Description:
By secondary structure, the protein is α/β, with parallel strands linked by helices. It folds into 3 domains: 2-107, Rossmann fold, CATH 3.40.50; 122-163, no CATH class; 173-482, pyruvate-formate lyase- activating enzyme (Alpha-Beta Horseshoe), CATH 3.80.30. The protein is 40% helix and 22% strand. The strands form 4 sheets. The chain has a 9-stranded mixed sheet with strand order 14-15-13-12-11-10-9-6-16, sandwiched between helices. A 5-stranded mixed sheet has the order 2-1-3-4-5, with helices on one face. It has a two-stranded parallel ribbon with strand order 7-8. β4 and β5 (72-79) form a beta hairpin. The longest helix is centred in the first third of the chain and has 24 residues, at 84-107. The structure holds iron/sulfur cluster (SF4).
Amino acid sequence: MELLIATDWPQFANDLADVARIFYGALSYRTVPFADASQTELTEDTLLLIHRESAESGRVKVLLEARGRVGDTAAETYEKCADPLSEKRLHKRALKLALYRLLKNASGITPPWGSLTGIRPTRLVWAEMEKGQTLAQAVDTVRRVFDVSPEKAALLREIVSSQQTLPKPSGRETEIYVGIPFCVTRCAYCSFLSGELGDGRLVEPYVAALLKEIAFVKEMLKETGLSVSTVYVGGGTPTALPAEALRQVLLALEPLAVGREFTVEAGRPDTITREKLKVIMDSGASRISVNPQTFHDETLRRIGRAHTAKQTEEAFYLAREMGFRDINMDLIAGLPGEDLPMFEETLRRLSALQPDSVTVHTLSIKHSSVLHLFGAPLPDGEMVARMQHLGREAAHAMGLKAYYLYRQKYMAGALENVAYARPGLECLYNVRMMEETGHVLALGAGGISKRVWPSGGRIARAPNVGNIEEYIARVDEMCERKRALWA
Length: 487
Ligand code: SF4
């Protein structure tokens, strides 16, 4: 669908498009002059929004008129204020709420997250609590203001109550992220900066560059006095590396991993071998991920993952047998060709393994151009919502509790990704990353280092280049970017 917007405030066009995506999924948008708006030929596949405003006695009235796919109007008001930043926030919120109400009325759809389009809804709850509200009051405020469903409000409450038990970052400690941007094959829905391992010619120079960056970070930690809280090796799939290359990276990281947790994403079961698990165990890593995504071989083939459900189970049992006591598993709700009984079967096989944490993702497809790769239809938003609900029930039945969530654009049913863990085994790195509460020193291609200031919400970033060859050639520059971030 195409969204056309006639407005004098084009800076909010993207925010309006985000609200429209809650109801219509992926869509493109463009602004059009008011003069053209009335002459544009409208079809069922076009939504034209005409945005006007009027002000009286310090209050601004935002008016939206929709034509084309939907014909309706809506209005919202906000109070003018002296601080331009606050004014901009109120202005944007009023505009988004007006469109949300308009589309909710016209479509008859009640989105689970209401008018919320942000990726971290828990932040709103924390913000209310910082103003002095209790958890219950804060969740209720967010529920009312943004029209969040009771089920999602309960989820917010469960997550924030889990997060309250976790240690807060001190400001003198940092998380360390190390990216291994290789995979054995590429999944059809992948949006990560990862490349296929191919003939492996980039492994050696990549590891050499990474070792250089690790050595630099060790020096930097001494200079800045920062201590390390968590180490997270992700990707891509770190275990796509040959065992010796993986050993070199993890050994170099070992002296840093003195904090609460050291995670290595084993990820794809087809890359997990006894030898690589031993390398991980010997490095002192305490937490790994073995990601099934689904326990249906047909779906795994369809999405380009070259492993079977049986291989997932074998990899999991091997890891347990070798002594791993903290294993995470990722699932995806909404995979092509899957229905509720299939998802229930996936949950049944997952529950039989009793992992220590589970992340239930919702399939997010940024470009509809990849849909034809699947060769099967995607389940609709309602069914995916049901799958998320079943995932939540299964996690609770395993004794796991939700501890972080994030949303992405282009998700089926405007849903979310939720992580559940056995209390005490929450992944602190993931929480701090998602909530943006801790510093991050990110190494490897595509890593984004962050410096977080404790008050005022200021965050500065230093990204590494995403292209693997560029990273290898410019690793010294990536080190300097980090140094500048802490200057
Ligand atoms: S395993 Fe993950 S990083 Fe690798 S291709 Fe699949 S989705 Fe992308």
